[in-house]
């Protein structure tokens, strides 16, 4: 999300729309506890192999970069507030109600903060990766948005 918002911010005329899935526009306690749990989870070599599938020999580096950045107390004030209001293209914010890294406040905040048309969709019974957990429903949501 942060990369997409930054790209839109610098090249607004090139973007026709933005779909934000499980995006984190700020940090909540749920974000911290979810990342701490993930860090613990990936200490198990069997679980770490799952990351290796996607990140190859950089899996440990990717995990450390993510967890150490987001868990750093100096990072707690990070947010996309000032950038979101610059987003003028239509925005669809999709979020699972069981997302381990953030509450449904995230998509609602995103939809309420952008300058263009926006819609927040909360998926029931879905965690952090809606397109993997219920790809058909995500596609239905995307197609249904005008």
From TrEMBL:
Domain of life, source organism: Bacteria
Gene source species: Zhongshania aliphaticivorans
InterPro entries: AB_hydrolase_fold (IPR029058)
Name of the protein this chain belongs to: Uncharacterized protein
